[in-house]
Specification:
The complex is a heterodimer of chains A (208) and B (198).
Chain A: H1 28-44, H2 48-56, H3 60-65, H4 68-82, H5 88-95, E1 127-130, E2 149-160, H6 162-165, E3 173-182, H7 183-187, E4 194-201, E5 205-207
Antiparallel strand pairs in A: 1-2, 1-5, 2-3, 3-4
Chain B: H1 14-28, H2 36-47, H3 50-62, H4 64-72, H5 74-80, E1 91-95, E2 100-105, H6 114-117, H7 122-125, H8 127-132, H9 137-143, E3 153-158, E4 164-168, H10 180-184, H11 189-193
Parallel strand pairs in B: 1-4, 2-3
Helix pairs in contact in B: 3-4, 4-5
Classes of the chains: A alpha+beta (208), B alpha/beta (198).
C-alpha cells in the first residue's frame, strides 16, 4: 500500500534527532511492547510481511507522532484482535480509554501465489526498471524507485515474497537483487557521485 | 519526592496503560511465560550491541585475510567471531575507502543488523532519517557532522529485503602500533552505520 511508512524521499520532516548513544529501552513499557509483539507474532505464526504490514496500516497521523515501540504496541494489539486473541472492547476497558488500532487490510488474501521463480532472470550488470505499480497490500518495493531504471550489482539468493506472505498462507519464492540507482535519476536535482542501492524481489523488476 | 517525603510514582501514561492492558489480557490467556519479558529484555540489553560490530571491524583492520573473507561473505566471516542470528543471517559488509563512503538506511521500516550493532537507535527508526538519507545523503551526512569532500562517492544502501548491511570504516591513520583489542575501542556505532568517519 502507498502508506505513511514508505518514507524514502519525503520532504519537510525536519532534522534528525541524532544522539551518539542511548539506552536500548528508554522506559520499561518499550521492552514490554517489544516482547508482546513477539508473543503475538508467535501465537498467530505471523510472517515478517504480516508483521510489517500491521504497522504500515496505522493511521498516518498516529504513525508520525508516535514512537517506534508505540508502533509495535499498536501492531501487536491489531494482530491480536484480528486473530481473535483479544477484543478491542476488552483492550479499551483495561486501558481505561481509547486504544487506537491499525486500519483494515485493503488487499484480498492471496489465493494463487503463482509459481516460484527458480533461476534469476537478471545478472550483475544488467539494466532493469522497477515496475510502476501500486499494490493495495504489503510490498517491499519503495515508491521512490518505481518506474526508475538501475543496474543489478548483486544477487542475494531466493526468498519468500513479502507481498504474498503478508496476505494468507500462500508463499512464492523468488531471487532477490541489489539494484543501484543514480541519485540524479531518482531526484532530477543534479546530485553527482551519489548512488542509492535498493534490494528487490525478481517480480518487482523488468528488463530496461 | 513529594513534600511529605514519600515517593509517589508518576501516573501511568496512556501508552503505558495500553501496554499494561495488552500484557494483562495475553497473560490471562496463558500466552506470556513467566520471566519471558525479563529474559528478552536482558538479551537485547546485554548480548547484542555495537561492541560486537567493533570487534568485527578491528579484526578486519588487523587481519587482511579476515578482511577479504568479510567482504566476500559477511555472514560467514562474522560467524567466525561468534555473531549471527536474527537480522544478521544474510550480512553484506561494505568497505569505505578514501574515494567511497557507504551509509545504511531502511526507508520502509527499521531493518538493522542486530547481531553486530544491537537494536537500532531512535533516530535511525524515525521519519527524518529514513526520508532524507536516500534523497540528500551528502547534506544529511554533513548535518550529522560527517562532512565529505565533494569528490568522495556516496553509496546509500536501503535495506529493503533480506540482506542487512555493516559499513567497514577506514582504519584511522596513526593506529599502526595498536593491538586488535585497542582498535576495538576506536570503532563507533555511527561509523558502522556510515553516519560518521573515524
Amino acid at each position: 500500500m502507498d502508506g505513511i511508512h514508505d518514507l524514502g524521499g519525503m520532504q519537510g520532516l525536519g532534522p534528525v534527532a541524532h544522539s551518539a548513544a542511548e539506552p536500548v529501552f528508554h522506559e520499561r513499557w518499550e521492552a514490554v511492547a517489544r516482547v508482546l509483539m513477539e508473543i503475538v507474532a508467535g501465537a498467530i505464526d505471523a510472517t515478517g510481511g504480516e508483521f510489517r504490514h500491521s504497522i504500515e496500516r496505522m493511521d498516518p497521523g498516529h504513525y508520525l507522532t508516535s514512537s517506534y515501540y508505540e508502533h509495535w504496541l499498536t501492531a501487536a494489539a491489531t494482530l491480536a484482535v484480528e486473530h481473535g486473541l483479544v477484543t478491542r472492547s476488552e483492550l479499551e476497558a483495561r486501558a481505561g480509554g481509547r486504544f487506537p488500532l491499525s486500519g483494515p487490510v485493503l488487499a484480498p488474501a492471496v489465493a494463487d501465489p503463482g509459481p516460484d521463480i527458480g533461476e534469476p532472470r537478471f545478472g550483475v550488470g544488467d539494466r532493469v526498471r522497477v515496475r510502476e505499480w501500486h499494490p493495495a497490500g504489503h510490498t517491499r518495493c519503495p515508491r521512490y524507485i518505481r518506474g526508475k531504471a538501475g543496474e543489478v550489482v548483486r544477487l542475494d539468493g531466493s526468498y519468500s515474497v513479502p507481498d504474498v506472505e503478508a496476505h494468507g498462507t500462500a508463499r512464492r519464492h523468488e531471487p532477490t537483487y541489489s539494484v543501484r540507482f543514480d541519485a540524479v535519476d531518482l531526484w532530477q536535482d543534479g546530485q553527482r557521485g551519489v548512488s542509492v542501492h535498493v534490494d528487490l524481489w525478481d517480480s518487482y523488476l523488468e528488463r530496461a | 519526592m513529594s513534600e511529605d517525603g514519600h515517593h509517589h510514582p508518576a501516573p501511568a501514561s496512556p501508552v503505558e496503560q495500553r501496554v499494561a492492558a495488552l500484557e494483562a489480557l495475553l497473560t490471562e490467556r496463558g500466552l506470556v511465560p513467566q520471566g519471558f519479558i525479563a529474559d528478552v529484555t536482558r538479551r537485547y540489553e546485554s548480548e547484542i550491541g555495537p561492541l560486537n560490530g567493533a570487534k568485527v571491524v578491528a579484526r578486519a583492520w588487523a587481519d587482511p585475510q579476515f578482511r577479504e573473507r568479510l567482504l566476500a561473505d559477511g555472514t560467514a566471516a562474522i560467524a567466525e567471531l561468534g555473531f549471527g542470528g536474527a537480522e544478521g543471517s544474510h550480512m553484506v559488509v561494505v568497505a569505505n575507502t578514501p574515494a567511497v563512503h557507504n551509509v545504511i538506511v531502511c526507508t520502509l521500516c527499521s531493518c538493522y543488523p542486530w547481531p553486530v550493532l544491537g537494536l537500532p537507535p531512535s533516530w535511525y527508526k524515525d521519519a527524518p532519517y529514513r526520508a532524507r538519507m536516500v534523497r540528500e545523503p551528502r547534506a544529511l551526512l554533513a548535518e550529522m557532522g560527517c562532512d565529505l569532500p565533494g569528490d568522495v562517492e556516496v553509496r546509500v544502501w536501503d535495506s529493503s529485503a533480506e540482506v542487512r548491511y555493516l559499513v567497514l570504516p577506514e582504519r584511522p591513520p596513526g593506529t599502526e602500533g595498536l593491538t586488535e583489542a585497542d582498535l576495538v575501542g576506536l570503532v563507533t556505532r555511527d561509523s558502522m552505520i556510515g553516519v560518521a568517519r573515524l
